[in-house]
């Protein structure tokens, strides 16, 4: 299959692995890229020197394209951008900020820039900023979420109508059938996060991976709307946040409960009770930890099979 996403990134399949904090290191990114998708290093949880090391290791592990996800609110952002340019990365996904800030600078160094949005309004801003593609991410997604709370399958056609940019759908997609549904609604590729958390190459703690494959419907909740909306596994920490929100806690009070390094404590160090565990609703559909390459293959084969079956209807 060839389409604008495959051509833009020079990949075989329009399957992009999300750049998730604490889970998306060089091992996962290179494995996805080697399997024909686009692997992404998640820079949001990395100090600059760690990011450089991760990029160098990824370049050694694959000759295929890979990218880096950069949250634009990161305090060492200028250092990250400099390292990305110095190391010759050719694809950058940005999020959580104004796409106009760095897009032109990155493009001047031959880098393709993709920005993540949660509404058609912001998709237009992405196009105005001159980005090469846009990711529309629905309410089902894990991690940081948009305040609009628009579901993925409502969001895709709205964004498709708002912009002519190559469109990648994200949020609640972990299977080939989900991929086909997104494409029918106007997407040209999918970004998959939660399914790749439960991969062998994910840098998330094994406790976290084990928890993900045992989650059921309703085991995640969108929390901390006064700070930054984030979808979390329901555990002791999330319950503490929920109780505080129910009592009308202020943004400052919620930030105090959150503290520092809470996400690292959960997803990377494996504290399933007091850690912040970011994951999408589709986790209830994930039942096994397996190699990332197999996940890419399964999604693509199911997509092709579903496409054939649908054509017969």
CATH architecture classification of the largest domain: Alpha-Beta Barrel
- Total strand segments: 11
Please identify the structural class as seen in this structure: alpha/beta
Mean pLDDT: 95
Rg to the nearest angstrom?
18 Å
* SSE succession: HEHEHEHEHEHEEHEHEHHEEHHHH
Number of domains: 2
How much of the sequence lies in strands comes to 15-25%
Strand order of the largest sheet: 1-9-8-6-5-4-3-2
The CATH homologous superfamily of the largest domain corresponds to: Aldolase class I
Question: Alpha-carbon distance between the termini?
Answer: 22 Å
CATH fold-level assignment of the largest domain: TIM Barrel
Number of DSSP helical runs: 14
Helix content: 40-55%
Features:
alpha/beta, TIM Barrel, 3-stranded antiparallel β-sheet, 8-stranded parallel β-sheet, 313 residues
């Amino acid at each position: 299959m060839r389409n604008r996403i495959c051509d833009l990134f020079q990949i075989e399949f329009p399957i992009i692995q999300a750049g998730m904090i604490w889970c998306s290191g060089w091992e996962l990114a290179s494995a996805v890229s080697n399997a024909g998708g686009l692997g992404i290093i998640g820079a949001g949880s990395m100090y600059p020197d760690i990011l450089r090391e991760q990029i160098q290791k990824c370049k050694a592990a694959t000759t295929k394209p890979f990218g880096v996800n950069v949250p634009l609110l990161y305090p060492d952002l200028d250092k990250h951008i400099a390292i990305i340019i110095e190391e010759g990365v050719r694809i950058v996904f940005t999020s959580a900020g104004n796409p106009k800030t760095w897009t032109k600078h990155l493009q001047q160094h031959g880098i393709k820039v993709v920005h993540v949005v949660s509404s058609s309004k912001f998709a237009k801003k992405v196009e105005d900023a001159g980005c090469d593609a846009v990711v529309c991410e629905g309410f089902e997604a894990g991690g940081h979420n948009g305040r609009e709370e628009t579901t993925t399958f409502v969001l895709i056609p709205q964004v498709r109508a708002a912009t002519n940019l190559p469109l990648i759908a994200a949020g609640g997609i972990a299977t080939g059938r989900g991929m086909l549904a997104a494409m029918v609604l106007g997407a040209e590729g999918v970004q998959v996060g939660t399914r790749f958390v439960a991969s062998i190459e994910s840098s998330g703690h094994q406790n976290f991976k084990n928890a993900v494959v045992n989650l059921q419907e309703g085991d995640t909740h969108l929390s901390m709307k006064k700070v930054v909306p984030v979808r979390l596994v329901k555990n002791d920490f999330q319950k503490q946040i929920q109780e505080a929100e129910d009592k009308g806690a202020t943004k400052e009070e919620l930030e105090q409960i959150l503290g520092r390094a809470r996400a690292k404590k959960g997803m990377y160090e494996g504290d399933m009770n007091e850690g912040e565990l970011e994951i999408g609703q589709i986790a209830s559909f994930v039942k096994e930890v397996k190699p990332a390459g197999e996940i890419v293959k399964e999604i693509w084969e199911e997509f092709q099979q579903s496409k054939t079956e649908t054509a017969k209807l």
